[in-house]
Specification:
It contains 14 helices and no strands. By secondary structure, it is mainly alpha-helical. It has 2 domains: 152 residues, no CATH class; 159 residues, no CATH class. The longest helix has 30 residues. The relative contact order is 0.11.
Length: 313
């Protein structure tokens, strides 16, 4: 497989996975903000800080303005993490390698591109039409995942697509975890109600699993354990890293280069860190550092992977 093709397949799924995560977060916040009595402390700040480069002044002006926040997150082309930009970049990658993806995958990406670029998109983010638009876009992302999973052959292209998907998913989980725990200054001992963690868990599609799995009232620790170490949760850091490891081994099984050894060690250290970290050792003093270092090591692995397989300088 040509390096540029592998690069396109890798980034196609990274952009689509980030789009999916963005839409899940948007839908969660939009719905919860309708009930201001219960969620009085909830604002758009976490989403704006994760998916935009807004300065503090801009965040303050947008965090209580749902219409403006939706426009910034979905259709603002000045925001390089807006849904419109992410889908456009995904389509550019898909268009350049149509021979290597199924017709159904291309059609789904193309359909979502035209949906987000339809005339007067901002008008559909106001009033009662907003949730209808968010639902429609969310369903398109879900359809993409289903179409890709059921139609793509399990060859080298699929392995690179899966690497992109799970690297991006892991980074999103780390970013969201860091953002929501920063709201309580990483204080795990000062117990919060489960409602404190509902936005984060819903945005990661893990709220129902949480209620069925964790029975104690230690909600701070339970939520943290789920997003970091629960191997049954498909968006936990450990689960996604194990998937990255699986598809990395598939990609490199016939590769005996020196770069492979360095990549294997880098990823191995990261996976082992999650597998063998004592959960009881994580506290207010260590949590932020743990999240920051894990993200830094995964980003470094992703850069090394790109240099090895995609000919990045």
């Amino acid at each position: 497989m040509l390096s540029r093709t592998a690069d396109s397949m890798f980034w196609l799924n990274r952009y689509m996975e980030r789009s999916d995560g963005l839409l899940r977060g948007i839908k969660t916040h939009y719905i919860l903000l309708l009930d201001k009595g219960v969620n009085e402390n909830l604002t758009w700040r976490p989403m704006l800080e994760i998916f935009t480069t807004c300065n503090e002044e801009d965040v303050l002006s947008l965090e209580h303005n749902t219409e403006a926040a939706l426009q910034k997150l979905i259709s603002d082309t000045d925001n390089l993490n807006s849904l419109k930009i992410l889908i456009t970049r995904a389509r550019e990658n898909a268009r350049g390698m149509q021979d290597h993806i199924t017709k159904e995958v291309w059609e789904q990406v193309n359909q979502m591109y035209h949906l987000i670029n339809q005339s007067a998109p901002d008008s559909h983010l106001r009033g009662f039409e907003a949730i209808k638009t968010i639902d429609s876009l969310t369903n398109e992302c879900i359809l993409y995942n289903g179409v890709a999973d059921t139609t793509m052959p399990r060859g080298m292209g699929w392995n690179f697509m899966s690497l992109g998907k799970y690297i991006e998913r892991c980074l999103l989980t780390i970013e969201m975890t860091n953002k929501y725990y920063s709201l309580i200054d990483y204080t795990l001992e000062e117990e919060k109600d489960i409602l404190q963690w509902r936005p984060m868990l819903l945005a990661l599609s893990g709220y129902e699993l949480h209620l069925k799995t964790y029975r104690s009232s230690e909600h701070n620790l339970n939520a943290l354990h789920q997003v970091l170490f629960n191997e049954n949760f498909t968006r936990s850091v450990l689960y996604t890293l194990l998937r990255v490891d699986k598809y990395f081994k598939e990609v490199t099984k016939d590769n005996n280069s020196e770069e492979k050894e360095a990549l294997t060690k880098c990823l191995g250290r990261l996976v082992s860190k999650l597998q063998y970290t004592d959960f009881e050792s994580i506290n207010q003093l260590t949590l932020q550092k743990f999240l920051s270092e894990t993200r830094k090591e995964l980003v470094e692995f992703s850069k090394m992977l790109a240099q090895c397989f995609f000919s990045y300088s």
